[in-house]
């Protein structure tokens, strides 16, 4: 079964259990991949987390039920997983821009998120430059933070994290510690937390030897890596490259993604330049 077919099978499972308290482990099992890898793949292809997708779908169905039945609002709130009418009303207003009672009266517009179907066209129109690298175990040193997933996250996320470490001089310190094969300051995602809808994000550099005591180290095992060239301003070029990797390169090559954190290597002195050149390191098997 291909990656896309496996993901669609997991999405169908989500849809069939929208009213159940299913876990990311149960969903990922349908795709036959790890929870972290499933969550990462899902976000790359859809731009939302699994939890956010389920919330949007539940509130879409709740809005349909409010508009087409006379069932009590409190009963609909409980049905779609909200313990109090207040929590339901807050979430409902955030998605639809109106309250449940206004939806019942037909006041305002509703925002519908339809059932997801993943379709991949293997065009290969845009060439991808990459190389295969065999690497022994190595370590990175840096700092990490729990960052929220999804475009509607309310807490400070990855861009704010980068802004802080650039402003407080930590990036400059990390550059001085860079002393091994992988160049550039690295952005690394690890450890998806389903309950908090967050990931552990590292800003680090590859470093051989013991690092300063106020920094944390992360060990990478011996593995095979695909190193993709990413050209363009990082905020737009990196997401586009990730989508091309998952929608074109992976389905058309014989590799599987390994259960190892992926790395974005910001090798350009100014990754925001329109002609910047950076890298994505993806472990495969």
What features would you describe in this structure?
By secondary structure, the protein is an alpha+beta fold. The chain has two domains: 3-105, Orthogonal Bundle (Arc Repressor Mutant, subunit A); 130-284, Multidrug-efflux Transporter 1 Regulator Bmrr, Chain A, CATH 3.20.80.10. The protein is built from ten helices and eight strands. The chain has helices at residues 3-16, 24-31, 35-46, 50-68, 73-79, 85-96, 100-105, 158-167, 170-177, 234-252, and strands at 130-135, 138-148, 185-193, 198-206, 216-220, 223-231, 263-266, 277-284. An eight-stranded antiparallel beta sheet has the order 1-6-8-7-3-4-2-5. β3 (185-193) and β4 form a beta hairpin. α2 crosses α3 and α5 (73-79) packs across α6 (85-96).
Biggest sheet details: 8 strands, antiparallel
Distance between the termini: 16 Å
CATH architecture of the largest domain: Alpha-Beta Barrel
The CATH superfamily of the largest domain bears the name: Regulatory factor, effector binding domain
Shape verdict: elongated
Helix-strand pattern:
HHHHHHHEEHHEEEEHEE
For the secondary structure, the number of strands is 8
Fraction in helix? 40-55%
Q: Output mean pLDDT.
A: 88
CATH class of the largest domain: Alpha Beta
Radius of gyration from the CA trace? 21 Å
Largest sheet: spatial strand order: 1-6-8-7-3-4-2-5
Q: What fold name goes in the CATH topology slot of the largest domain?
A: Multidrug-efflux Transporter 1 Regulator Bmrr, Chain A
Number of helices: 10
Structural class: alpha+beta
**Proportion in β-strands:** 15-25%
Poorly predicted ranges (pLDDT <50, ≥5 residues)? none
- How many separate domains? 2
Keywords: DNA-binding, Transcription, Transcription regulation
Protein name: AraC family transcriptional regulator
Domain HTH araC/xylS-type: 8-106
Pfam families: Cass2 (PF14526), HTH_18 (PF12833)
